[in-house]
Amino acid sequence: RVYLSPMLFGMRYSSFGRHFTRTYKLQSIVDQLSYYVNPGDMVVDLCCGSNEFSRLMSDKLTAMKKDCRFKNFDFIQPSDTFHFERKDYMEIQPEELCSGDKLIMGLNPPFGFRAQLASKFVEHCVKFQPKIIVLIAPEETRRPDGRYYELTWEDKDLLRGDAFYLPGSVDAEGKTIKQENNVPPVLYLWSRVDFAEAHRKIARRHGHLRRSSGR
To answer: How far apart are CA 73 and CA 201, in angstroms?
Structure first.
């Protein structure tokens, strides 16, 4: 006896077959990303799901005395409405956010067949010219144009194992069903070319390049 939303629970924030990233994995991403964030930056989650990432990011940056702004979008309202706006990320326009020099965008978009949706997500991010795109996506996802963005690092190991769960879906014992991929997605950090060298220095200083499979 296994129950999977949305078949049982209908249309709510935990339906539509989405998978959410587990908290301890998000915390690891937050711990790494926080070094690249400056006071006054805006962190934008274009497909926020449970909206846990920005909450963890805010706590981390507050502890580091970095005062930042947040915007979190999705077309289904999460239980945590921290800086949440109900909107499809494809409908968001550049004038709704700050300038790209202060902008950090991500995180876990829908993948789609052969990463088609994830690739559209990347294309839409580039329109805002953010200084950082941080992304959980399959390897076949189309990358940002190399004239404008460089891959600072990638981590192919972080999201192995029980990195995801199926929200609103429980087994016969009432436990949330875990989601493990045969081929785990990759965590990417792309930098706009004019920030790339500064971000590589940060990556070297904190050992992120050593954990990167691409370096």
So the answer is: 31
**Does residue 8 fall inside a structural domain?**
no
Segment 12-54, tens digit of pLDDT? 433 344 567 888 999 999 999 999 999 999 999 988 888 999 9
E strands, 77-207, in order: 84-86, 103-106, 132-137, 149-155, 164-170, 176-179, 186-192
Host domain of residue 101 = 20-206
| CA pseudo-torsion sign 165, 142, 125, 17 | negative
Question: What's the number of domains the chain is made of?
Answer: 1
Note whether residue 202 is domain-resident: yes
* 98 has a pLDDT exceeding 90: yes
- In SS3 terms, 142-169 reads as CCCCCCCEEEEEEECCCCCCCCEEEEEE
56, β-bridge pairs? none
**Residue at 13 is within a domain:** no
Q: Residue 115 is part of a domain; what is its CATH number?
A: 3.40.50.150
Indicate the pTM of the whole model: 0.83
Q: Encode pLDDT of 113-156 as tens digits.
A: 888 888 999 999 999 999 999 999 999 999 999 999 999 999 99
